[in-house]
Amino acid sequence: MDTRAWSAQQLTDFVVAVSAADDEASATVVAVQRAAAALDADVAAIVCAGEIVAAVGYPDGASPVAELEAVRPGLSEAMLEVPGVGPCVAAATVLEHPEGAALVVGRAAPTGFTPEQAALLGAMGQVASMTLQMLRVLDDERTARSKLRSVADEQAALGRVATLVAGGVEEHLVFDAVAAEVGRVLPGVDVAWIGRYHGGETVEFVGAWSREGEATFVGGRVPLGGHNVGTLVCRHNEPVRVDLYRDDDAPASLLARNWARSAAGTPINVAGRLWGVMTIGSREASGLPAGIEYRLADFTALMSTAIANAQARDDLRRLADEQAALRRVATLVARGEGRDTVFTSIADEVQALLPVTRLRVVRGHAAAHDEIAVPITVEGSTWGAIVAGTAEEPLPTGAEEQLSAFAELAAMEVANAKAREELRRIADEQAALRRVATLVAHAAAPSAVFAAVAEEVGRLFSAGSAHVARYDPGDVETVIAVWGTTDPALELVETTVAAPITVAGRPWGLVRVTPSGGDPLPRGTEGRLAAFTELVATAIANAEAQAALTASLTRLVTSADVTRRRIERDLNDGPQQQLASLALQLRSIQRRIPPDTDGLAPELGSLVAGLTGALEELQEYARGIHPAFLTEGGLETALRTLTRRARIPVDLNVHAGGRLSEPVEVAAYYVVSEALTNAAKHAHATSVIVDVEADNRLQIRIHDNGIGGAVFERGSGLAGMRDRVEALGGRISLESRAGLGTDLSVELPLAVGG
Amino acid sequence: VPLVELTCLIVDDNASFLKAASRLLEREGVTVSGVASNGAEALRVAREVKPDVVLLDIMLGSESGFDVARELAAIDGGGPTVVFVSTHAETDFAELIDEASAAGFLSKSDLSAEAIRQVVA
């Protein structure tokens, strides 16, 4: 075979061998082997940019790159020193691909390469370049395809996770799913887990995936510490990679080493705060591709969204629950269900909303160190607090705010109750004042007003006792009305509250309230007492004015009576006596008239008769001015005398019990006298009943069977009767319906002018 | 009581009546054995002269004739017969006169020996 044919055959074999290679790397190796064989070379190599790409004939690790690179193309007499072979004649050809590469061959000296062999080397170099370049393109395309596929897988995984997240699947299912997707999609991952940090001190495993089956550590919790991904991410809040777990005894490290020799992790941040970590691990040291921690970031972003969503949902549900609970409590407050009901409801609702194990509503502040207290503020000052505590974990953030809303309702209840109480108190007070005022308005006796005030203020302030006292001369305080039982021990207690009674600008007395059993009286009691002392003062002033008026009327009536009595007496002592004496003198003269004086005796006799008639008339007048027999014999006798002389039958029942004061006797006499006159004169009665009874007052009742219709007409006898009765502080009432007779009722106090 | 033996004490605070009554009764045959103008004097004279009849004014100044009558009745050995006199009507004092231990009443203007005799009879 000639040289040309041989060369062609060698080149064809070379092309077939090299182009059969799968990729550029194996093609390079084939190219070197085939070149050495075709050229009967002892060594062959492709060098490029200071590196051996492939070599044959050299012992392992003994490829002299610089020496090989120094071999230049052409027929230079370059030499190579090949271990185990000795000096070799070298030849080289530049390869177009890879750029700057050369194919170098060497054969043991002294036999060098023929020009045909050198040309063949050049041709093989060209073929190898083309083939390698073609294979590089194929390799690149394959790589690109593979990359595309893995990106697609990752996108699909992310899509599935996103679907889960968007679907509102529960948190722990999302965590497991994400761990599984991460484990399956990212290269070199044997185990993947999601950890949640608790206060930078522990990490809880909330989701996991393992290539070998179930990840049993989900739900566990370990303290952070040591050189492991979980701890490092927590400390630095950035992607972390550990290519080989060191031997440290931290629990987190021990756990991590159980599952992986190398690991990478990315922080999961939710709403700007470090929430947890997503970790992937490999059974191999440096088992994870470079930069894989950054590819995790896409997953952690989804995790963040999932968690944020879940939290938002939880927040919404919590908010809705909280609002419903607040509404229920508010309804109770609005209905005025009472403090116990409201506070019990608050305790129940809070315990349903928050992980509290104890809760109480207290007056003042009484929180233990491991509890939180939210103040209940009523009218600007602290009334009490809602105190909550938990057995284990601290209360979630925002618990104070939630409790505050309930504290506000509690405050509202307290304020409402106060307002209700205040309303009731005001109503009670108004009612009490009204009752006393009514008494005062009806001119009740001051003693009745005092007693009423003592009782009303005693009851109103739930006092132990209450009394009204009057200042008497010499700094003496005289108790004039008492309500309740006075505990002498409490008399000196400072909480006793008093308010002065001031009448006409001068201190008259006081109303004093003593608390019951040491319960202090409410603040402002003295002010509220003032309304009562004013009524007392009015009653006293009224009574004093009334007494003064009555006294002056009494004086008027009494002095008129005295005058009438004097006139009657004067009539009796003067004209009547004189007329009587004159009559007797005339009769004496009559006795001395001689029998023969015609007509003188009868004349004198008629004179005597005239005098006697005048005397009788005077008697009538005098009796009308003043009944002397009343003064002489008293009311009972006088009334009997009167009724005996009456023009119609009188049924008299009188029990005056001895003599009464003259004004009372005179008034009573006039009442009966006037009534009898009226019965006979105006009412045309045919019978009258008169009942007179002296008890603590003198009661007079007069009933006639006349025509009725009598009224206290101005200037009438009845009106005069009324004036006289009222002047003595008495009362008079008249019932006189037409056809039903007349009932007159009079009540006179026995003591007059007091 | 035999006509000639009727002795009488007149008790009244009015001097002109005492005078007029004494004169009339003396003329009509009654022995006016004494006069008095108050209760104490009346008692003293009554004890002294022991009259058959005492004409006793009901309104004896500040004193009550009824009181004086009770005192006269209490005189040892029995008091004199009392006949009240007054310028007032008998009916005014009927009850008191009934209650008092008196023989009766005579209006002052009706006084006469005959009237006294009728009352004490």
Structure characterization notes:
Chain A has 754 residues and is α+β, with helices and mostly antiparallel strands. Helix content of chain A is 51%, strand content 22%. Chain A contains 17 helices and 23 strands. Chain A has a six-stranded antiparallel β-sheet, with helices on both faces. Chain A has a five-stranded antiparallel β-sheet with strand order 2-1-5-4-3. In chain A, a hairpin with a 3-residue loop joins strand 3 and strand 4. The longest helix of chain A is centred in the C-terminal third of the chain and has 68 residues, at 525-592. Chain B has 121 residues and is α/β, with parallel strands linked by helices. Helix content of chain B is 42%, strand content 25%. Chain B has five helices and seven strands, in the order E-H-E-H-E-E-E-H-E-H-E-H. Chain B has helices at 15-27, 39-49, 65-73, 90-99, 113-120, and strands spanning 7-11, 31-36, 53-57, 59-60, 63-64, 81-86, 104-107. In chain B, the strands form two sheets. Chain B has a five-stranded parallel β-sheet, sandwiched between helices. In chain B, strands 4-5 form a two-stranded antiparallel sheet. In chain B, helix 4 links the parallel strand 6 (81-86) and strand 7 (104-107). In chain B, helix 2 (39-49) packs parallel to helix 3 (65-73). The longest helix of chain B has 13 residues, at 15-27. The N and C termini of chain B lie close together (8 Å). The mean pLDDT of chain B is 88.
